[in-house]
Amino acid sequence: MKEVEDQKTSITGLFGIKYPIIQGGMIWHSGWRLASAVSNNGGLGLIGSASMYPDILRENIQKCKQATDKPFGVNIALLYPNLEEIIQIILEEKVKIVFTSAGSPKTYTEILQKEGLKVAHVVSSTKFAVKCEDAGVDAIVAEGFEAGGHNGRDETTTFCLIPNVKKHISKPLIAAGGIALGSQMKAAMILGADGVQIGSRFAATLEASSHENWKNKIISLGEGDTHLTLKELAPVRMVKNKFYHDLENLYETGRNVEALKETLGRARSKKGMFEGDLEEGELEIGQVSALIDEILPVEKVFENLLREYRAASVLEI
């Protein structure tokens, strides 16, 4: 593990962590148990606030502080409601790191930084990465469309996105989308990333707060079992289950946004990922799920990542 320990980057320095590994703040997965376990193993754990009512978020922050003395943060999806209340709770609980996504980086960056917080923002294109730099964020997460959950409309892959973003920004850069192995982590850093954000691999861990049915589904997925859809509303990568096919059937009769909204309904992601309904629920996961074949404790995930990172070699030509 020594090579990885020596891999000090602007990301490890910025967040005060041992390894340049950030856990994605995934809805219905990223509670205090997952976030604290990642932080305790040397990465940066994130609590996913988008699937939490404000009082539940406060409870998760408090429990995370009890479970780890290492840095952790909160992910805020700016398209969700209760933002003012969520921001207030984060400030009151003295959280030091926030990752924002699905909105303008200008919305809260300055407010949070004035309170002493570090702010990273998630983007899916070079154009928006430049806007992040202009907004003064502390770090930028560039996410390729391989990633699960809400995604970019341009469908730019991580391998194309990272080197292009790197050419246009000076802020620390975190690669996301399609990373579950240590070799993939090394590849992202060779392309210019200062760290990586990993979601899907941490979704299939013992500490993730999602349903066991869903975790077992993740490790059964193969290539082509996910698809990016719902571009008319907000692009999302999901598993091709009954709910997905119900949505796709609507496209045969035209791209009717209202019909899509009606079929989507409410709490579909909770039904699938948290309650374990694998047919009627919305199941969000990345393409890299095809490489995940075990539900593991977070400690073992880190052990594998670091071993694979060390073993990955670059051939001299």
Verbal overview:
It contains 15 helices and eleven strands. Helices cover 41% and strands 15% of the residues. It has helices at 2-5, 10-15, 32-40, 54-67, 83-92, 109-114, 126-135, 158-168, 182-190, 200-203, 212-218, 242-251, 257-264, 268-274, 298-311, and strands at 21-23, 45-48, 72-77, 97-101, 118-123, 139-143, 149-150, 173-176, 195-198, 226-229, 236-239. Helix 9 packs across helix 15 and helix 12 (242-251) packs antiparallel against helix 13 (257-264). It starts with a helix and ends in a 6-residue tail after the last helix. The protein folds into two domains: 2-210 and 292-310, TIM Barrel (Alpha-Beta Barrel), CATH 3.20.20; 222-287, no CATH class. The mean pLDDT is 92. The chain has 317 residues and is an alpha/beta fold. The chain is globular.
Total tally of structural domains: 2
CATH topology title of the largest domain = TIM Barrel
Given as residue ranges, the uncertain stretches (5+ residues, pLDDT < 50) are: none
Pattern of helices and strands: HHEHEHEHEHEHEEHEHEHHEEHHHH
Oligomer: single chain
Tell me the structural class. alpha/beta
From the N-terminal CA to the C-terminal CA, the straight-line distance is 26 Å
Number of helices: 15
| Reported CATH architecture of the largest domain | Alpha-Beta Barrel
Radius of gyration: 18 Å
Shape: globular
